Amino acid sequence: MRAVERAYAIAAALALAAGADVRVSRTPGGYLLTAAVPADPQRQLETLPALGLSDRFGHSSRDGLLWCAVDALEA
Predict the structure, then answer these.
(1) Which secondary-structure segment (H or E) carries 34?
(2) Which residues sit opposite 31 in a β-bridge?
(3) Residues 44, 73: contact at Cβ < 8 Å?
(4) Which pLDDT score, from 0 to 100, does residue 74 have?
């Protein structure tokens, strides 16, 4: 699966789990996906499987965002 396809598949899963829109941005190394951290702790837990599909993930307490990165390894 190409990186762009993988990024959008993860974005769809993350949007469903978080109940929020996901922003997909192209970066020099691949794709960055961001979404608002859900207020409901159960929904927060439900985002973990989607985040785990990415190459890296985390959150920003300051911005209230979940983020994950998909590396572009295509030649």
Answers:
(1) strand 30-36
(2) 26, 70
(3) no
(4) 58
Residues 6+ apart with CB under 8 A from 36: 18, 20, 64, 65, 66
pTM attached to this predicted model: 0.91
Distance separating alpha carbons of residues 48 and 27, to the nearest angstrom: 23
Higher pLDDT, 12 or 73: 12
Other beta carbons less than 10 A from residue 7's beta carbon: 26
CB-based contacts of 7-14 (< 8 A; 24+ apart in sequence): 7/31, 7/33, 7/70, 9/53, 10/50, 10/53, 10/54, 10/68, 10/70, 13/49, 13/50, 13/53, 14/47, 14/50, 14/51, 14/66, 14/68
Q: What is the mean pLDDT of residues 16-31?
A: 96
Task: Tokens 């899963």: give the residue.
Answer: 13
